[in-house]
Design a protein that fits this description.
Layout lengths: L3 E4 L5 H12 L3 E6 L2 H15 L3 E5 L5 H9 L10 E4 L15 H29 L3 E5 L12 H21 L5 E7 L6 H5 L4 H7 L8 H12 L9 E4 L15
Parallel strand pairs: 1-2, 1-4, 2-3, 4-5, 5-6, 6-7
Helix pairs in contact: 1-2, 1-8, 3-4, 4-5
The structure holds NADPH dihydro-nicotinamide-adenine-dinucleotide phosphate (NDP) and 2-hydroxyethylsulfonic acid (8X3).
């Protein structure tokens, strides 16, 4: 029996790389994100390359009605979601907290915290009914430390850490596994989004050292969700070798 994964934020970066690994391993995929065209392109390429079965759901995780409708409308067999990957997320801005934009704070809180909760709330009953499932949340090193000018982004990732622990406790009687995967710097569109499309500034985040690749995190996610039932990896912190913590990087030219 084929397994099913629902990935939020499958249009880029870690989510997209994860979709490829699961497709390659014969899973059915529910791919979600706001950029419909990218979802359709990815679906076509996974169907062609791996004969994968793919459903795309185009919604914004901040819109709880859209989240509920999308999950509700899934065909019955697709509601057997084995893995929920709460990956959609972003940072906006980089400034001292007193200079931060309230709109940026709201975008991050609404996406990284509330969006993750909305999607989990929609999918949890399906897992509880089957007494089976695995929720994997993408946290961050920024959920374990706070770095200068990272204030609200770091706080949202600290919240993901708290929510992960709470989910694990409350879902224990329902036999649902809950894990967090917490990367350091990964070279994705993350910094381009954070700096509003300023590519040079985004590239400078990854200059002078080898950052993680989206594929590195995708492989870890696959590993975490392919352990036997009695094994749960609660929390996995994955860093580039050149990054000791949020602030200490070995940059070489
Ligand atoms: P990308 O910007 O490459 O991808 C982010 C994904 O999130 C996109 O698919 C985007 O899709 C989706 N997304 C963002 N906002 C929304 C929304 N409101 N509704 C639905 N989907 C949304 O970044 P990454 O792959 O790096 O980020 C993935 C996760 O990894 C995030 O949670 C991030 O915080 C975390 N992370 C990233 C690190 C890094 O250094 N890159 C390190 C540690 C953690 P679309 O825009 O099409 O909606
Ligand atoms: C993203 C990692 O350190 O750039 O979560 O904030 S960091």
């Amino acid at each position: 029996m084929k397994k099913t994964i629902l990935i939020t934020g499958a249009t880029a970066g870690i989510g997209k790389a994860t979709a490829k690994i699961y497709a390659k391993n014969g899973w059915n995929l529910i791919l979600t994100g706001r950029r419909a065209e990218r979802l359709e392109e990815l679906k076509a390429s996974l169907m062609e390359q791996y004969s994968a079965e793919v459903i795309t759901l185009n919604f914004d995780v901040r819109d709880k009605d859209a989240v509920n409708e999308a999950v509700d409308r899934l065909p019955a067999t697709w509601k057997n979601i084995d893995v929920l990957l709460n990956n959609a997320g972003l940072a906006k801005g980089f400034s001292d907290i007193q200079d931060g934009l309230v709109e940026d704070w709201e975008t991050m809180i609404d996406t990284n915290i509330k969006g993750l909760l909305y999607v989990s709330k929609a999918v949890m009953p399906l897992m509880i009914e089957r007494k089976s499932g695995h929720i994997v949340n993408i946290g961050s090193i920024a959920g374990k430390e706070v770095y200068a000018k990272g204030n609200v982004y770091c706080s949202t990732k600290h919240a993901v850490e708290g929510i992960t622990k709470a989910l694990r406790l409350d879902l224990l009687p329902h036999k649902i596994k809950v894990s967090a995967i917490c990367p350091g710097a990964v070279d994705t569109e993350f910094s381009t989004v954070r700096f509003d499309g300023d590519k040079d500034r985004a590239d400078s985040v990854y200059n002078g050292y080898q950052p993680l690749l989206a594929q590195d995190i995708a492989e870890a996610i696959y590993f975490v969700t392919s352990r036997p039932f009695h094994v749960n990896i609660n929390d996995l912190l994955i860093m580039p070798t050149a990054q000791a913590n949020t602030s200490n990087l070995l940059r070489e030219e």
